[in-house]
Amino acid sequence: MTDGVWLVVGLGNPGPTYAGHRHNIGYLVTDELANRLDGKWRAHKSGRADVVEGRLRGTTPGVPGPRVVLARSRTYMNESGGPVKALATFYKVQPDHVIAIHDELDIAFDTMRVKLGGGDNGHNGLKSMRSSLGTGDFHRVRVGIGRPPGRQEVHDFVLSNFSSTERKVLPFVVDTAADAIETLITEGLEKTQQRFNS
């Protein structure tokens, strides 16, 4: 699983207003990965995304690990696909080497699922990526946020901050999702699913 460049996309909305929202879990996970690579976000020449380039730790001593490009779109969630397509073209990354990290309503908070392909399940970021890439055959790290309580609208729920209880656990959730991405790239989908699909 170590051949070629991997494009790891954190889905979210740009700017401080959205920073702590449930919808921005993808940004939080790519931040953690950037820290692990000792990388700093910089504007990509396309002007539509920020990137960090680096290599994961190799599994064999002395042999560098796979090359990765971490990416965050500068557009809103529902327009993520264009910038992702531009980066995939620039770095010559095939869809099966693209990983999207996103919030998932149908999975309980503090759990996640890793998979290849599938629909968008009403998620605007995934919908935009599918449309721009011309396929849904990219990897997804689906980080659970659960369903809104009571009668709260889904839109309001995803664009709200994590609760104080959730915020205590959030660093562990982010850390685990970052581990899952590293495992996916270095060891493949099957081993990742066995280990992380809680």
TrEMBL record:
Keywords assigned by UniProt, alphabetized: Cytoplasm, Hydrolase, RNA-binding, tRNA-binding
GO cellular component, one term: cytoplasm
Domain of life: Bacteria
Localization (cell): Cytoplasm
Database matches in PROSITE patterns: PEPT_TRNA_HYDROL_2
Entry annotation: catalytic residues: 23 (proton acceptor)
Family annotation (Pfam families): Pept_tRNA_hydro
Keyword Transcription found: no
Biological process terms in GO annotation: protein quality control for misfolded or incompletely synthesized proteins; rescue of stalled ribosome
GO terms of molecular function: peptidyl-tRNA hydrolase activity; tRNA binding
Site (Discriminates between blocked and unblocked aminoacyl-tRNA): 13
Residues of the site described as Stabilizes the basic form of H active site to accept a proton: 103
Keyword tRNA-binding attributed: yes
Annotated binding of tRNA, by residue: 18, 76, 78, 124
E.C. no: 3.1.1.29
Reactions catalysed: an N-acyl-L-alpha-aminoacyl-tRNA + H2O = an N-acyl-L-amino acid + a tRNA + H(+)
Main location class: cytoplasm
Family classification: Belongs to the PTH family.
Summary of subunit composition and partner proteins: Monomer.
Function: Hydrolyzes ribosome-free peptidyl-tRNAs (with 1 or more amino acids incorporated), which drop off the ribosome during protein synthesis, or as a result of ribosome stalling. Catalyzes the release of premature peptidyl moieties from peptidyl-tRNA molecules trapped in stalled 50S ribosomal subunits, and thus maintains levels of free tRNAs and 50S ribosomes.
Protein name per Swiss-Prot or TrEMBL: Peptidyl-tRNA hydrolase
Gene name of the encoded protein: pth
